[in-house]
Design a protein that fits this description.
heterodimer; A: four-stranded antiparallel β-sheet; 11 helices; disordered N terminus
Chain lengths: ~350, ~350
Amino acid sequence: MASKSMRMHWPVMLSPDPIKPLGQLQRPVLMVRDLKTHFFTEAGVVKAVNGVSLSVSEGETLAVVGESGSGKSVTGLTVMRLLSRTTARVVGGSIEFCDRNGKVVDVLGLSEAAMQRVRGHDIAMIFQDPMSSLNPVFTIGDQIAEPIRIHKGLDRRQAREQALDLLRQVGISDPEQRIDNYPHQLSGGMRQRVMIAVALACDPRLLIADEPTTALDVTIQAQIIALLKRLQGERRMAMIFVTHDLKLVDEIADRVAVMYASQVVEEGPVKTVLARPRHPYTRALLDCIPSRRDASGGRRKLRPIPGTLPNPLSPPLGCRFHSRCAFAAERCKAIEPALEAVGEDHVTRCLRWKEIEL
Amino acid sequence: MSSLDQLTLPQVAEQEARAPLVSARGLSKYFESRGGFLAQAKPPVKAVESVDLDIGRGEVLGVVGESGSGKSTLGRLILRLIEPTRGEVVFDGHRLQSLNAGEMRRFRRHMQMIFQDPFASLNARMTIGDALMEPLSLHRGLKGTAAREAVVALLEKVGLSGDHMKRYPRMFSGGQRQRIAIARALASNPSFIVADEPVSALDVSIQAEVLNLLQTLQAELDLTLMFISHDLSVVEAVTDRVMVLYLGRVMEIAFTDALYSKPRHPYTAALLQAAPGVAKSKRYILRGEIPSPSNPPSGCVFRTRCPFAIDDCAKVVPPLSKVGTEHYKACIRDDLDL
């Protein structure tokens, strides 16, 4: 147990990258710097995450948005250290986590045993498909109680009491009866509520939610989003919400990081980024979203992004988006852009951000 | 009531031009559960209940609803891929239920389907060329060079090229596979296509491409489309008219603009409000989940989740009543400001 005197506070670092620690009121709970997660496959090295920096503070939600293959899920899995070490390796960067005692933990440096004490306790994760994350042969009560018994050392009866309370908190009706159900007896929406209960069982400081509502109907999605927001507010938890759906970002997040081809291409406050994107890819993503008809009532032609995602085995030189970018100039093919500050807490990875009107 | 002989000639012509390509009357589908060893037979699952619909020539009709609302079952019923428990489908003047198996098989060339997961609907061991050749020889009797030329033409129509013929489905991306599925559906020159969640598995940039392709082809070939989707913004972008299903019943049907700008059924309003990215005026989150279709609520099936339900809602099954031009809703409360 860490005593009060041992408490360390998050060091104020002058970082070379433009992601600065936030004001004193918000302590970053997670700080990822220049993370590189590479997969060593027979076909070659896939640099799935290549130089990603992120931070998320207490009570804050950071949305990580991108298309399939952008590296958004791998980033989450790397933080949780859930990737198979036979193929995936972190070849660079750091992940620092501020635990509940204010102590800074080097996540990548932890032993597997120490990481097990963090996982599900300090950092929890929920996934898209609750059916494959829940064990079909245990009751949901047992599955919620398991992390409580492991991490909090409570006995079976006490853990069951807490499980009941959690089921109530996540809005499951008849919790006394449901607690002895098996996952297959629940609907998709209820399973996701159970997953949230499992994740929150030990009151984590950080919740990583990887497409938690993608498999759900819109009405159930709205319920789950409202639930996550309420629980986050009550617990002052930090949340990383991984999604492909830019429309959802506005509903749930404070800040958004847009990922393309293994890198963050833009990051900033949600309202600013959605209203005034400063990276051509963010603009292009917004233009793909089917939206209400234009003022004249005519159908708005959707504007797909030309071309395809670059081959992850051989990403293009220069800006990774240049071959699909409507604003690409000659230098975009040669110079790899760095993240540059474009405003308050707002960065973009574009050489031409000053000269183009998005 | 105007009978045919009271109409002037131009009116008759107009009437015929507007005659629906596809009509369904009283279409219902109950799935019986047989009750196996030691298990008791459960009441049937009422997947689709008494649906009437008309789809005009060249019209794009959207069908929306949550999972379990019966939208996919309705699509399959319309194509007679499954037999209805009650009711019938009339396609271009032909009563589908009166056709025998052989006639139905020959008739299928006029009506095709596109599914959500093209990987599951394409044979993994068949090259794309062979997969496209099959319907061409089956329905259009094309062989040899003529068939190959037709395959190339189809591939080009959907934005691929003849070089892709020799490749297998796994060698394509999700968006390309959906293009192939569309090409295959078009191979028999159909006039009607049911697209069941055709872009739901695709990334947003690919989704936009496939939607644009569908819209271009629809206009070019004057296709009639039934577009099934849970994504309200996609449906708004591509359809002329929208039907909202809940527990197998039609809740509301209207022109797309009218439905989105002024929904008249509480369920439609709730769906629109739940959809992310839709501007919210009055926000309420629908509570609970869709009830079991084997034991639907009495009266209005939506009443158990409806914030406006009154006692009468449990007593009567609300009929579809007209509330505007081609705008119908199944709700007994006319006093709601949604």
